[in-house]
């Protein structure tokens, strides 16, 4: 695994990477706190990824899980028991030893969360992967136990086979933290009042991991987190002396600050800026697209839902799909490297099917379908978010306007509804208030279920989530469930492909595009490898005068 | 009109005190400005009562209290037998028809946004008088004619007229309701002498024609004397002397009246050179903290030890219809007492000549204003 | 000779008749009209008026003036993330980020921008004035209550206010106008109250009371009309600020949800994302906003002078 | 030098006039508006110890004349013509520096409204001492002592305390006294008083007039008294100039003027004033119309429209020339073609008939 | 005087009470409650219900309000749902930045506005006059986000003279005692830190100061025009004072009276309202905190901040009124 790491350094023509220096990186927001176990947002993970490591990590510049703190692992026949052989000679930042005990301490910690820590806001990823807690017998957990069979071997048992495992262990949420520090700083003691969680001292001041950087300080007033090189790092030590992550919410400000030299790089480059930044000699590092943007339909076919009646007619849904000019959208609105999507997951994920039903841009066909369905002039309440820019949706308003124009051209009537992203938009869309809406997803790890399972798995009672009008399509639900529980990778891939075909036949929404988000760094920065998961590590980065 | 014998207006023991408020949560009254402090007077039908006095002595307040434009603190205002103070709401409004007022500032008392026609017809409409649209139009023209303005004035606005013309409009408006009593609060003091004479003539002429009763307030003794039958002299909230105008001029009894008379310049160098002047020391004391005893004792050239300082003189009738409130009126009249000079008076009164009292109230009002958010832009 | 003498005699009589007559000229000159006359003589006012009139004209005749459909994404297929087609045949100012004709959008944008300005100002003025009248007419505890209420509104950041309103009412152009209007309410209320309180003590109000004019008529017939001039002035200034406020709100994503409908503020804020590609997209709408704001402000400023009692004659 | 140090009265009464105003004219020309000539060829002179009165109705140009003398008219939009000499020095066209040196030191002015003429935010003391500091090179302390003396001299009791007070803390009479104190600070040769008592009560007015009278007598200051109150003029002035519509229409010695007014306007003014010593009930005899009815002098006698004596030749078109200011007996000048005659019984003569009936209709 | 201050402070009570009721009711009435905000994109209804139960959000609103009030009087406004720290801590950390920024903006607005307004008035009708009026207006008519962009483009990107965002250069390791960065720099004798913090105030300060600048220019101008026509200025001239004395003692002093109230009012407004400016300059003050709180439905922060700002606002206004009394003897209180 460590060889992967070493090979990553020389991205830029192998120029001798210098050691030293401070890098300032512009982020869009403050981290929520610094304990990744409680984290669920990108800015928290951007910091924790530098401080912490998991048993597994992500392939540099890719989406596949690779060994990190675990040298390797074995899976039992039944797929329920994982044996991890751990790296030796690893120390936490507080000087304590990393070993199997520490690993199990972390797993047990998660499983034994109580009270507020079990709320979804606190432990979203744990619940997404493992289900319930020891304290919540109603919601079973797929975690059974962790055993340190010796100093460097940890055995983890599950109650159920899942395709998420072990890939999910690469998620930053499952980073291994120092048991001593966790205990000393009361890491599990989430308190709260009324409408807020109060994080313990550990999460605010003492995040202690094994990663290449150590936490130094967090200056909230000035919006800056300072990390310093971990001199005792077990692998190749970081090149930078210091990594400062600074919050600059406004995109133009970020760009101008980079141009002025106040920061050395930033994330979430506006697609329009890719070219001009490059022209100025800055390095735009485009990530491979690992996301999906779709236009969701409230096309449920179950009586008693809030679904739009017209959208229950497959012809109307197909008409929408034919109306949308994805190629123009991709070429005009999305950065170079974006692709039109034909299904609800990116091609790089196992389970992608080349041969799903496709719906080309064909306004005439759309009109015709609409006519057949007797739904010309159907009014669609088209929801789109404001005050947000997502990797898959850099400019929601522009996207809305173009699609809206496409649909109008095809004979629909559009009633726009704009809402602030969080919570209004998400709330409205997920409770099924929209007829059609824009939404998307960036994958957490290389797993089909992480995409289509999240969208179309049975939510309850033989129905999909309200976002898609709670449609009922048992064959899709079954296909997804079967695939998720299939331990054999090849079979699983086949099952997911089947699920994708079913989905695109049913057409619960129109997949639109996969879009490559980018970061940008100054000319003198080298060694930053863009990650499709937006999980960049800065240990390979160096900065020259 | 029926009870011709008795006076049209009778004021008895009228007091108007303005509270001085201050407080933390709720305003507490910490004192009173005794603007009018116990005034009795009576005005006979068809006569003119002139009221003179120094600025701030309470003349306007008295006039306003009679019309109930300010609430009297105590006392009675009997208008044609009815106690005005007891009237409320609609009854008061109706009563106002019979008592009207002409204001000192001719421009300020006319709404700048109303043309003359609307100015004059408004009171008629407010009281449902004039007999409809056509009736009102005729009446308005009559009014204009009565005050000597051409019909062309109807469509014009107050700012387009000269001062005298504005005052005519004010008078026309006041008489539009055919009142019995007209209170004229300094009707001419804002006007040039030549125009002042026109307005004074007009007032007299109207009185003759319409049988009006006047209460004329002024600080100009000459004007008051010219048009009044009876003149009252006010000092610091109360009447100090009242007499038929001839009598008052011929033989002023109160030291203050004497001083006032002697201070009025006469446009005749010969008279001016001969005239004996009685200069007063200092200014009007604060009505919030009036001097003890005789209110005038702080400035009085005839002040006598202790009695003037301690004992409040009452209004006595020294001659028929000639009332005066001075302990030493007879002695002064007979020349038994000699006046002292202003300097001497000032010296005996020490620093009390200062007139900060009034000012203190002024600033206090501003402090009160401060409690409200100061209006800024 | 005698004939001549007669003529002169006549002239003397004429002069004599003139003395004591009201000034000549047909019809009275109302204050508004005399203010208007002064405005006409003031070059600053004329400049302001010309600007405002030109933009009103553009707004009124937008369909005839605009060369193209402001919504048609004609050049969209030529747009690339780092490239927006510039001026070309048929597109005098080039296209925007969705391939729409910029000039046409600017022209149509005047409609929405002015509408937002006018509606929200009128709304804010009406509500604010209602509060102001309440406080100014009754005084006492009503005044206290109203003014405390205004204080409360004032101490809430206007942005929060605007956002809450658009969240409460759903995001639509009316919510936007209401949101902007709410932020204007305290200004109008305080202004009118202050000016009414000042008027309340004036002699003509006392005169009206003495004449037995009813209270309602005194307030609405006398005090209010005479208190309006600062409000009118503020109104013109508010028109300008409303348009700018609309820009700020759409910058925050709280603008008109029908974003295809051109509006300068929204155009300017969307253009922020393309400043590195085509700054003109921002410059033009910004220029429009500035010029209109300037027009209204100049007009307001000269109205202030024209309505100032000091200059009355 | 203090006031007491001045030479005694007699020595100052020389024939050399302190102030000579010759053919003074002031035109206001606002952009976009008709130019108005507020003062039109006014000439007069004042000798030391002499009091000259300028009388006339509101708007006749009294204040503008005084401001022109002081050089206090705004620069822009105002044209000033003629000549103003103070002790032989031409003031019109003199540089600002010279004027500032003279103002306050050689010539001083007292204004009508004592409250608005005092700076509300500066203590009285400072407002008095600043003149001393400016013109008499005094130190702060010395000036304060001197200022207290000045206040005392104009009759303000407890002057040391008053120095620290602000204008609003003083009564109207005291404010006017303070203003006079400032004017007197440098014992100016010329004092112009522009309606100094109009805003005051009669009793206070009497105090102030007394003060001015003493001043002229004691220090020989040349006083220009501007007023519309003929009573004030009668008591105070040596010579009187009656103004109408920007021009002097009659000039006379005080006694002459009141005894035998020649201009119908002057006569009218005198007849309009109700007199304390006249009986009740006799109607006043006002001039009809108001000052606004004046016609331009270029068309004829400005007073003609209101004048009962007006004849054809009061108009320029007939007479061929404007009515000139002419010699009218010793010490008198008159601008009238049809003056009043038999002036010994003015009031009676003019009151009957036309004037009264013309009034107020 | 003391009585006056006490009275004004007591008047705060009803304002704060009214404000708290209003805020509380209002914020709770907004769709998408705190649970949704806290739980994020894909929270299930059950999770939300559990959250609500946990935090008592399912109880009647007045119970919630009383609980809130009870804690608020002890200056406990709860915890930010975004940062998990107490609102009071957040406020104390954020307020100094806003205070520094406001002060800088006002110094800029006053320093430029008063002389400009004075000159404009003295040259009434000249090009300088029109230029000052129109120029100050331009700043107002440009939305602040665009102005920020232009300022930064010129001074940070092109010229590189000034920092374009933040409160302090992140590479400087400054000690913070009071969170007033400039002051901290001076206290700790870290001169470069103080200087750097000051430089960081310049661009946002200018952007923030343009509106008060425009208002100050206009009011100064109008007020000077009024004052030069006052009788007492004529008196001062009649006394033969030097032009300089007249200007200083008699014109400017009085002309500044109305300006001073405006300054106070604007200061009050800036202290509570620099939301957009602070956001586009990534300036860590209360404005940007409110902005974040608005978009994350951070009710505790919104309530607490706005109530505390209302106190600041009223205190500033009180200060203004007191200082007005000091400046103008006519309204001086005893
Ligand atoms: N509304 C009021 N509140 C408090 N004090 C008042 C009020 N109105 C008048 N005063 C005070 O009452 C006293 C008498 O005032 P008033 O106006 O009656 O005097 P006046 O004789 O008419 O004076 P002037 O000749 O100046 O008009 C003054 O001291 C004045 O300050
Ligand atoms: N700054 C000015 N601009 C234009 N016209 C002016 C100006 N100042 C005075 N006038 C005009 O000059 C004329 C004379 O005014 P002035 O002030 O000298 O009159 P006055 O005799 O002092 O009157 P009053 O008795 O009312 O003080 C008036 O008609 C007035 O309108
Ligand atoms: Mg009065
Ligand atoms: Mg004058």
Strand content of chain D: 15-25%
- Broad shape of chain D: globular
- Please identify, by name, the CATH architecture of the domain at 94-281 in chain E: Orthogonal Bundle
Say which molecules are bound, naming each kind only once.
adenosine-5'-triphosphate, magnesium ion
CATH topology of the domain at 94-281 in chain E: MetI-like fold
The whole-angstrom Rg of chain E is 24 Å
Give the count of helical stretches of chain E. Answer: 14
N- to C-terminal distance of chain D = 59 Å
Bin the helical content of chain E: over 70%
Q: How many helical stretches of chain D?
A: 14
Backbone shape of chain E: globular
What characterizes the major β-sheet of chain D? 8 strands, mixed
Could you give the order of strands across the largest sheet of chain D? 6-7-8-3-9-10-12-11
Helices and strands of chain D: which structural class?
A: alpha/beta
Q: CATH superfamily membership of the largest domain in chain D, which one?
A: P-loop containing nucleotide triphosphate hydrolases
Strand proportion of chain E, as a percent range, falls in under 5%
Total domain units of chain D: 2
Number of strands of chain D: 12
Q: What string gives the helices and strands of chain D in order?
A: HEEEHEEHEHHHHEHEHEEHHHEEHH
User: What is the CATH C-level name of the domain at 94-281 in chain E?
Assistant: Mainly Alpha
Would you mind describing this structure in some detail?
- The complex is a heteropentamer of chains A (545), B (377), C (313), D (361) and E (334).
- Chain A is α+β, with helices and mostly antiparallel strands and 545 residues long.
- Chain A is 28% helix and 22% strand.
- The two termini of chain A are 31 Å apart.
- Chain D is an alpha/beta fold.
- Chain D folds into two domains: 19-237, P-loop containing nucleotide triphosphate hydrolases (Rossmann fold, 3-Layer(aba) Sandwich), CATH 3.40.50; 267-274 and 290-360, no CATH class.
- Chain D is globular, with a radius of gyration of 21 Å.
- In chain D, 59% of the residues are buried.
- The model of chain E has no long low-confidence stretch (mean pLDDT 81).
- The chains are: A alpha+beta (545), B alpha/beta (377), C mainly alpha (313), D alpha/beta (361), E mainly alpha (334).
- At the B-D interface, helix 5, helix 6, helix 7, helix 8 and helix 9 of B face helix 7, helix 8, helix 9, helix 10 and helix 11 of D.
- One magnesium ion (MG) binds at residues 62-63, 194-195 of chain D.
- One magnesium ion binds at residues 59-60, 185-186 of chain B.
Structure characteristics:
heteropentamer; A: 545 residues; alpha+beta; 7-stranded mixed β-sheet; 6-stranded mixed β-sheet; 16 helices; 25 strands; globular; disordered N terminus; E: 334 residues; mainly alpha; MetI-like fold; 14 helices; binds adenosine-5'-triphosphate; binds magnesium ion; membrane (chain E); transmembrane helix (chain E); MetI-like_sf (chain E)
Could you provide a short overview of the structure?
The complex is a heteropentamer of chains A (545), B (377), C (313), D (361) and E (334). Chain C contains twelve helices and no strands.
Topology:
The complex is a heteropentamer of chains A (about 550), B (about 375), C (about 325), D (about 350) and E (about 325).
Chain B: E1 9-22, E2 28-43, E3 48-53, H1 59-66, E4 74-79, E5 82-83, H2 89-96, E6 99-102, H3 116-126, H4 132-146, H5 163-175, E7 181-185, H6 193-210, E8 213-217, H7 221-227, E9 230-235, E10 238-244, H8 245-250, H9 255-263, H10 269-274, H11 307-310, E11 316-319, E12 322-324, H12 329-333, H13 342-348, H14 356-371
Parallel strand pairs in B: 3-8, 3-9, 6-7, 7-8
Antiparallel strand pairs in B: 1-2, 1-4, 4-5, 9-10, 10-12, 11-12
Chain C: H1 2-18, H2 31-41, H3 43-60, H4 62-65, H5 102-138, H6 140-155, H7 158-168, H8 173-200, H9 203-210, H10 215-251, H11 264-271, H12 280-307
Chain E: H1 2-29, H2 34-39, H3 45-54, H4 61-72, H5 87-122, H6 127-141, H7 144-158, H8 181-187, H9 191-228, H10 231-238, H11 243-273, H12 275-280, H13 286-295, H14 299-327
Helix pairs in contact in E: 1-14, 5-6, 5-9, 5-11, 5-14, 6-9, 7-9, 8-9, 9-11, 10-11, 11-14, 13-14
Bound molecules: adenosine-5'-triphosphate (2 copies) and magnesium ion (2 copies).
One adenosine-5'-triphosphate binds near residues 33, 58, 287 and 358 of chain B.
């Amino acid at each position: 695994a460590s060889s992967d790491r070493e090979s990553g350094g020389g991205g830029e023509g192998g120029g001798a990477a210098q050691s030293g220096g401070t890098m300032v990186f512009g982020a869009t927001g403050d981290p929520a706190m610094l304990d990744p176990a409680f984290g669920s947002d990108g800015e928290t993970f951007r910091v924790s990824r530098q401080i912490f490591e998991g048993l597994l990590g992500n392939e540099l510049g890719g989406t596949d899980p690779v060994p990190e703190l675990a040298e390797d692992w074995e899976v039992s026949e039944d797929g329920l028991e994982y044996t991890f052989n751990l790296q030796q000679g690893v120390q936490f930042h507080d000087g304590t030893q990393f070993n199997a005990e520490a690993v199990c301490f972390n797993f047990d910690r998660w499983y034994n969360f109580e009270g507020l820590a079990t709320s979804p806001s606190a432990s979203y990823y744990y619940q997404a992967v493992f289900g319930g807690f020891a304290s919540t017998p109603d919601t079973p957990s797929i975690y059974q136990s962790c055993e340190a069979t010796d100093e460097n071997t940890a055995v983890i048992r599950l109650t159920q086979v899942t395709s998420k495992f072990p890939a999910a262990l690469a998620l930053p949420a499952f980073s291994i933290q120092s048991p001593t520090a966790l205990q000393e700083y009361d890491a599990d003691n989430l308190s709260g009042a009324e409408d807020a969680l109060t994080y313990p001292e550990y999460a605010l001041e003492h995040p202690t991991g094994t990663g290449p950087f150590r936490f130094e300080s967090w200056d909230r007033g000035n919006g800056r987190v300072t990390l310093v090189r971990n001199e005792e790092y077990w692998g190749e030590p970081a090149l930078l002396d210091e990594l400062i992550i600074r919050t600059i919410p406004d995109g133009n400000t970020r760009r101008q600050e980079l141009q002025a030299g106040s920061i050395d790089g930033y994330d979430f480059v506006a697609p329009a800026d890719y070219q001009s930044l490059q022209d100025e000699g800055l390095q735009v590092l485009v990530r491979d697209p690992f996301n999906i943007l779709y236009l969701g339909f409230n096309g449920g076919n179950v009586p008693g839902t809030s679904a739009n009646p017209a959208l229950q007619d497959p012809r109307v849904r197909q008409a929408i799909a034919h109306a949308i000019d994805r190629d123009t959208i991709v070429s005009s609105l999305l950065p170079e490297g974006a692709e039109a999507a034909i299904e609800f997951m990116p091609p790089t994920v196992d389970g992608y099917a080349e041969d799903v039903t496709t719906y080309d841009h064909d306004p005439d066909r759309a009109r015709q379908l609409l006519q057949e369905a007797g739904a010309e002039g159907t009014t669609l309440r088209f929801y789109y978010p404001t005050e947000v820019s997502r990797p898959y949706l850099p400019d929601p308003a522009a996207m809305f306007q173009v699609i809206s124009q496409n649909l109008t051209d095809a004979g629909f009537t559009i009633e726009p509804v704009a809402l602030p992203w969080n919570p209004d938009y998400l709330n409205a869309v997920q409770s099924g208030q929209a007829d059609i809406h824009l939404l998307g997803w960036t994958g957490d790890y290389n797993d089909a279920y992480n995409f289509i399972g999240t969208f179309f798995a049975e939510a309850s009672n033989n129905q999909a989530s309200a976002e898609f009008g709670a449609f009922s399509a048992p064959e899709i639900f079954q296909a997804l469930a079967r695939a998720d529980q299939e331990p054999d990778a090849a079979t699983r891939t086949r099952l997911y492909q089947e699920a994708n075909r079913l989905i695109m036949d049913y057409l619960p929404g129109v997949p639109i595009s996969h879009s490559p988000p980018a970061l940008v760094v100054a000319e003198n920065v080298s060694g930053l490898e863009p990650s499709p998961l937006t999980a960049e590590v800065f240990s390979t980065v160096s900065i020259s005068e | 009109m029926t009870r011709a014998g008795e006076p049209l207006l009778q004021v008895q023991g009228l007091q108007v005190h303005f509270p001085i408020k201050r407080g933390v949560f709720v305003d507490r009254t910490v004192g009173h400005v005794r603007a009018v402090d116990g005034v009795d007077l009576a005005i006979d039908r068809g006569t003119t009562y002139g009221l003179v006095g120094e600025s701030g002595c309470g003349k306007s307040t008295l006039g306003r209290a009679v019309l109930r434009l300010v609430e009297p603190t105590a006392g009675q205002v009997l208008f044609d037998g009815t106690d005005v103070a007891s009237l409320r709401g609609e009854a008061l409004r109706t009563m106002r028809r019979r008592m009207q007022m002409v204001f000192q500032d001719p421009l300020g008392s006319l709404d700048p946004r109303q043309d003359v026609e609307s100015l004059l017809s408004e009171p008629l409409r407010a009281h449902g008088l004039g007999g409809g649209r056509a009736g009102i139009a005729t009446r308005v023209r009559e009014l204009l004619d009565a005050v000597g303005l051409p019909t062309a004035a109807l469509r014009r606005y107050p700012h387009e007229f000269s001062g005298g013309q504005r005052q005519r409009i004010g008078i026309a408006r006041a008489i539009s309701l055919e009142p019995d009593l007209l209170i004229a609060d300094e009707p001419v003091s804002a006007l040039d002498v030549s125009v002042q004479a026109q307005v004074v003539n007009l007032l007299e002429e109207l009185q003759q024609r319409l049988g009006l009763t006047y209460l004329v307030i002024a600080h100009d003794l000459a004007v008051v004397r010219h048009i009044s039958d009876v003149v009252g002299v006010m000092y610091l909230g109360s009447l100090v002397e009242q007499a038929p105008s001839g009598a008052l001029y011929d033989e002023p009894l109160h030291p203050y009246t004497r001083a006032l008379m002697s201070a009025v310049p006469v446009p005749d160098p010969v008279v001016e050179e001969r005239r004996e002047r009685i200069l007063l020391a200092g200014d009007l004391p604060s009505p919030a903290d009036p001097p003890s005893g005789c209110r005038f004792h702080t400035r009085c050239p005839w002040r006598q030890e202790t009695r003037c300082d301690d004992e409040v003189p009452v209004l006595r009738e020294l001659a028929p219809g000639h009332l005066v409130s001075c302990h030493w009126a007879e002695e002064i009249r007979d020349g038994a007492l000699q006046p002292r000079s202003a300097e001497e008076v000032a010296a005996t009164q020490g620093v009390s000549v200062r007139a900060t009292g009034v000012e203190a109230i002024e600033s206090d009002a501003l402090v009160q204003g401060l409690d409200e958010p100061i209006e800024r832009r | 000779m005698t004939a001549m003498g007669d003529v002169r005699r006549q002239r003397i009589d004429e002069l004599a008749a003139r003395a004591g007559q009201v000034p000549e000229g047909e019809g009275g000159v109302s204050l508004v009209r005399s203010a208007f006359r002064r405005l006409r003589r003031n070059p600053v006012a004329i400049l302001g008026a010309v600007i405002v009139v030109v933009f009103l004209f553009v707004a009124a005749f937008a369909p005839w003036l605009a060369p193209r459909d402001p919504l048609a994404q004609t050049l969209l297929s030529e747009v690339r993330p780092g490239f927006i087609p510039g001026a070309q045949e048929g597109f005098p100012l080039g296209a925007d980020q969705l391939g729409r004709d910029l000039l046409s959008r600017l022209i149509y944008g005047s409609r929405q921008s002015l509408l937002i300005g006018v509606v929200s100002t009128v709304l804010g003025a009406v509500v604010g004035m209602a509060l102001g009248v309440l406080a100014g007419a009754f005084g006492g505890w009503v005044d206290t209550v109203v003014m405390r209420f205004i204080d409360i509104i004032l101490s809430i950041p206007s942005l929060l206010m605007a956002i809450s309103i658009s969240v409460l009412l759903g995001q639509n152009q009316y919510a936007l106008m209401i949101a902007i209007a709410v932020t204007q309410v305290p200004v109008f209320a305080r202004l009118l109250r202050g000016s009414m309180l000042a008027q309340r003590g004036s002699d003509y109000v006392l005169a009206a009371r003495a004449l037995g004019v009813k209270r309602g008529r005194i307030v609405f017939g006398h005090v209010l009309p005479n208190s309006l001039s600062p409000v009118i002035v503020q109104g013109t200034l508010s028109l300008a600020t409303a348009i700018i406020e609309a820009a700020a709100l759409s910058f925050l994503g709280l603008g008109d949800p029908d974003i295809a409908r051109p509006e300068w503020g929204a155009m300017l804020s969307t253009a922020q994302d393309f400043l590195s590609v085509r700054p003109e997209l921002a410059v033009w709408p910004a220029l429009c906003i500035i010029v209109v704001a300037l027009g209204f402000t100049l007009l307001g400023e000269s109205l202030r002078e024209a309505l100032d009692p000091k200059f009355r004659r | 030098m203090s006031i007491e140090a001045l030479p005694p009265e007699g020595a100052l009464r020389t024939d050399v006039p302190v102030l000579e105003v010759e053919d003074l004219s002031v035109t206001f020309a606002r952009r976009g508006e008709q130019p108005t000539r507020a003062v039109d060829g006014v000439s007069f002179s004042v000798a030391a110890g002499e009091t000259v009165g300028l009388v006339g109705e509101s708007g006749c140009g009294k204040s503008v004349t005084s401001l022109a003398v002081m050089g206090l008219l705004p620069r822009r939009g105002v044209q000033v013509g003629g000549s103003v000499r103070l002790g032989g020095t031409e003031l019109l066209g003199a540089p600002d520096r010279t004027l500032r040196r003279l103002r306050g030191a050689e010539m001083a002015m007292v204004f009508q409204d004592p409250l608005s003429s005092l700076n509300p935010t500066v203590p009285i003391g400072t407002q008095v001492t600043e003149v001393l500091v400016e013109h008499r090179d005094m130190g702060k302390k010395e000036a304060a002592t001197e200022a207290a003396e000045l206040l005392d001299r104009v009759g303000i009791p407890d002057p040391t305390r008053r120095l620290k007070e602000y204008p609003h803390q003083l009564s109207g009479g005291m404010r006017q006294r303070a203003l006079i104190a400032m004017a007197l600070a440098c014992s100016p040769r010329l004092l112009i008083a522009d309606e100094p008592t109009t805003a005051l009560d009669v009793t206070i007015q009497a105090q102030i007039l007394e003060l001015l009278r003493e001043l002229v007598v004691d220090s020989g200051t040349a006083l220009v008294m501007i007023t519309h109150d003929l009573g004030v003029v009668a008591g105070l002035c040596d010579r009187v100039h009656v103004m109408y519509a920007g021009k002097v229409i009659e000039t006379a010695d005080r006694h002459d003027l009141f005894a035998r007014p020649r201009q119908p306007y002057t006569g009218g003014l005198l007849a309009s004033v109700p007199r304390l010593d006249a009986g009740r009930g006799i109607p006043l005899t006002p001039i009809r119309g108001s000052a606004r009815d004046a016609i331009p002098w270029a068309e004829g006698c400005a007073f003609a429209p209101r004048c009962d004596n007006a004849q054809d030749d009061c108009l320029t078109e007939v007479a061929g020339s404007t009515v000139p200011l002419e010699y009218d007996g010793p010490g008198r000048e008159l601008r009238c073609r049809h003056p009043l005659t038999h002036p010994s019984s003015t009031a009676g003569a003019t009151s009957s008939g036309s004037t009264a009936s013309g009034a107020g209709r | 005087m003391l009585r006056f201050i006490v009275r004004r402070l007591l008047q705060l009570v009803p304002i704060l009470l009214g404000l708290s009721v209003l805020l509380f009711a209002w914020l709770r009435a907004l769709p998408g409650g705190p649970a949704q905000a806290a739980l994020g994109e894909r929270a299930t209804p059950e999770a939300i219900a559990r959250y609500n139960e946990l935090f008592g959000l399912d109880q009647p609103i007045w119970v919630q309000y009383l609980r809130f009030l009870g804690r608020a009087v002890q200056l406990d406004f709860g915890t930010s749902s975004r940062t998990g720290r107490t609102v009071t801590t957040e406020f104390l950390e954020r307020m100094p930045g806003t205070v520094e920024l406001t002060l800088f903006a006002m110094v800029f607005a006053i320093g430029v506005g008063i002389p400009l307004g004075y000159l404009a008035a003295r040259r009434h009708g000249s090009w300088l006059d029109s230029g000052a009026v129109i120029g100050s207006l331009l700043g107002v008519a440009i939305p602040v986000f665009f102005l920020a962009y232009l300022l930064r483009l010129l001074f940070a990107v092109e010229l590189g003279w000034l920092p374009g965002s933040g409160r302090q250069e992140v590479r400087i390791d400054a000690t913070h005692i009071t969170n007033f960065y400039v002051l901290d720099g001076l206290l700790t004798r870290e001169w470069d830190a103080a200087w750097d913090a000051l430089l960081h105030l310049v661009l946002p300060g200018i952007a923030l100061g343009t509106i008060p600048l425009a208002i100050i220019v206009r009011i100064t101008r109008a007020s000077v025009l009024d004052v030069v026509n006052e009788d007492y200025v004529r008196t001062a001239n009649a006394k033969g004072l030097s032009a300089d004395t007249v200007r200083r003692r008699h014109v400017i002093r009085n002309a500044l009276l109305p300006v001073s109230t405006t300054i106070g009012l604007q200061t009050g407004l800036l202290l509570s309202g620099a939301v957009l400016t602070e956001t586009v300059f990534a300036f860590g003050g209360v404005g940007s905190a409110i902005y974040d709180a608005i978009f994350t439905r951070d009710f505790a922060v919104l309530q607490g901040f706005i109530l505390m700002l209302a106190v600041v606002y009223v205190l500033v206004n009180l200060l203004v009124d007191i200082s007005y009394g000091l400046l103008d003897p006519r309204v001086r209180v005893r």
